[in-house]
Amino acid sequence: MDLLRSQTAKTILLLGSLSGAFILFTGAVGMIAAFHEREVVDRFISLGQLLLIIAPFVTGYYAAGKLRALGEDSPVLLIGGITIGIMTAAPSVILLLFNSDEFRFLLDLTLRLIPFAAASIFAWRLHRAGSETQMAIAVWLVVAVLVGIVTFSFALIFEIKGDLRSVLVNINREWVDVVTFDNRKDLARGIGAFSLISVVAGFAGSILYLMPNLPRRALIYGLGVTVLVGAFGETVRLILQENIDRDTLKEIFRRDTLRQNAALALFIISTVAGFLWAMFGRQARESFHSINVSQRRSLNIIGLVIFVVFMLALPWLIGRTLSDVAVTIGIFVLMGLGLNIAIGLAGLLDLGYVTNYAVGAYILAVLTSIGPLGLFKGTFTFWMVIPLALLAAMFAGFIFAVPVLRMRGDYLAIATLGFGEIIGKLAISDWLKPLIGGAQGVQAIPKPILLGAELKNPEQLYYIVLVASLVCLFVSIRLNNSRTGRQWMAIREDEDVATAMGIDTARAKLLAFTLSAATGGVAGAIFAAKVGTVFPNSFTVFISINVLSLIIVGGIASNPGIVVGAIVLIGMPELLREFSEFRFLLYGALLILMMIKRPQGLIPSKIVTHEVRTGVKPKLAGAE
Amino acid sequence: MALLEVSEIHTYYGNIHALKGVSFEVDSGEIIALIGANGAGKTTTLRTISGLMEPREGAVIYEGEDISSTRADLLVAKGISMVPEGRGVFAKLTVEENLDMGAYVRRDGDIKDDLKNAYSLFPRLEERKKQFAGTLSGGEQQMLAIARALMSKPRLLLLDEPSMGLAPVLVDGVFETVQRIASEGVTILLVEQNAHMALQIADRGYVLQSGEVAISDTAANLQQNETVQKTYLGID
Ligand SMILES: Nc1ncnc2c1ncn2[C@@H]1O[C@H](COP(=O)(O)OP(=O)(O)O)[C@@H](O)[C@H]1O
Ligand SMILES: [Mg+2]
């Protein structure tokens, strides 16, 4: 009993249960089965199986660190790793048993026992706490009946339907296949394999922690690179196919999957590279810091030149499919930079950003379309309409800002959320149908034409997005360091004091909303030209949420952060199609994780870092 | 002509009648103390003068002009500057950025001299100019708030309880500073609960009670006034 109460045992049990819950949950929502579709290493391991291994491995590693901090010895750390391995597999194993024909009775038994067990625990605790026997018995009865009703209904459902799937739809054959490592027929073997692998992974995690620094870092690096390249095999292959010849490519990939030999080679190479970096990286950094200022400046310039050349050459390096993804990312970077003016600079929580995106898209659609809904049938070109889309979005931003000027914080957020919904409803309405086509939307939007050439491929559209983003980035940086930027900063901090400084807060807020809307309009127009059609259901609240999330994940008020946020939140689901099915689940998990571990975002701005470090509460416009 | 004339103002928070006909005058170059208990309406009076609130009745006359319904941000440009209750420094900006923000309304560009001025008035701020304002001590934040208010080159400075929450040693410093600022020709309307100190540096004073002016006299007389002594100076 004492052992169980020790901090050490608590740590292990808590982390083990978390890891087990994670595997159970991802299985029950169908994620494991979905990820199984993607092989990480050819005929060796799938992404779904990798999930089963990574959870105990990472938890084992993490737990070892915690246990060491508690002052425990190495054997305890290893036992911790093994225990975590067991606990990771346990919940899913139980579910496997419940789901099998032979052990179905276990489920029945458990369901029948639960009410008694729950009631007994309650009653016992009451009794221990000193209440009278009659009281404890009464509570026992009440709890037993209540819990009994619930579990009995469950049991009934299972009995009628005959299996777990009626309640847990994803606990199906595919799931069983993955967790038993393809031993569905022989359950004992499957459970054995699953448990063994889980235990070994947990153990390996704690061993990794116990390794000396150098090999540990090298291994982490090697494993990380191999897993990432394997998981994003399709992406990597698409990039390689632009740059190396076919036969070599075939040696490395079988369709989209890394071959076993290639994976092994990659692992060895990246481990060695990681080892070298761990040995000499610090030296390299130190020598960089020790060189004099002018040398460092020239190095910085070289870096910048390389970066610019890279950005310009990107479409050639990555090919068509990935260029398409890059354009989508770029569109969201544009919106992120725009929304950041309202949220990051002025502290105005705008949840209706999709409005501006829709306005830009529809303006371009209606003015340039050569279909039946086109107003001018080709008289207006993309280039003429881009400024109009920008102005129209600014106008929309302005109009919607006027009524919410006096609102602060949460109220502002709710009002803007409402406006976003209104736009969606208007787009699909019968009222505007003659103009923008209702649910059918506007079709036949021509591609931009530059110097007589039609920019119809994503590789070409990429440059439009790139230029637009750079312009926007430039403006955004200039704004931040301007008188206007300081106005916003003051309003974000304290609206009343800002007024006392002589700032016209109403005007400053209008300006923030209006400018913020501008890039949304441009993004919408580019989107419309890229897709060639505009439908109302492209403009839902999820666009606003996507943009907001990428700002938060990247780092509020941080321009590089927005780019990284867009790559992670927009690019990843596009590249890993298995992800996109669980996009919002992952967003939620990621946002919660960020709020706990890194509230300032991946690449934080200076001010927000300060907020987080000093505990000065981040505050949105005068939220009281 | 008085620099500021407050005449019979009634100010409301919704239905709450906070000021019930407050009148007083501030002449150029004076230090005027506005004293009163918690909730008497001192802050509300300052908010009404500075344009953050509008009186429902009555008028605020500044340099002969009725400013009762002029927006707060415009009044800063006209030379009325306020140090709000609880200081209100921008915690996430550096000391120098805070001072810059104080000069926001000025379009004459060159604020270097004024920065130098502020730093000579408050040498501690110069030592900490790159530090985030939120990391300053209470006394330093108060100095910063005052220095920031001066950056807009006000003719009338409204101070709302500058000694609130400061250690007694620091309080003396704050009042000395106020006197120094006044000696440079800035007119000061000083709101205080610390009546003792306020009346020592003020020329005249008004006692506010439940939204009305109860007593008005020279500071010296107020210090001798029996009611004032009993209620606000803690002398029996
Ligand atoms: N925001 C507000 N809403 C409603 N009533 C307020 C508000 N602020 C102050 N009051 C009321 O107005 C009166 C005067 O308050 P205030 O001017 O802050 O007093 P003082 O500054 O002298 O302590 C008080 O009765 C107070 O309760
Ligand atoms: Mg007050």
Description:
The complex is a heterodimer of chains A (624) and B (236). Chain A is mainly α. Helix content of chain A is 76%, strand content 2%. Chain A folds into 3 domains: 2-107 and 167-210, no CATH class; 225-290, no CATH class; 309-612, Orthogonal Bundle (ABC transporter involved in vitamin B12 uptake, BtuC). Chain A has helices spanning 2-5, 7-28, 31-36, 47-69, 74-99, 104-128, 133-161, 173-179, 187-210, 213-231, 233-243, 246-252, 260-290, 293-345, 354-368, 382-404, 409-428, 433-436, 458-480, 483-493, 495-500, 505-531, 541-554, 559-575, 577-580, 583-597, 606-614, and strands at 39-41, 45-46, 253-254, 257-258, 449-450, 453-454. In chain A, the strands form 3 sheets. A two-stranded antiparallel sheet of chain A has the order 1-2. In chain A, α6 (104-128) packs antiparallel against α7 (133-161). Chain B is an alpha/beta fold and 236 residues long. Chain B has 10 helices and 10 strands. Chain B is globular. Chain A binds chain B through residues 483, 486-487, 489-490, 493-494, 496-497, 499-505, 607, 610-611, 614, 616, and chain B through 50, 52, 71-77, 81-82, 84, 88, 90-93, 97, 100-102, 104-105, 132, 134-135, 148, 152. The structure holds adenosine-5'-diphosphate and magnesium ion. Residues 42-43, 85 of chain B line the site of magnesium ion. Magnesium ion binds next to α1 of chain B.
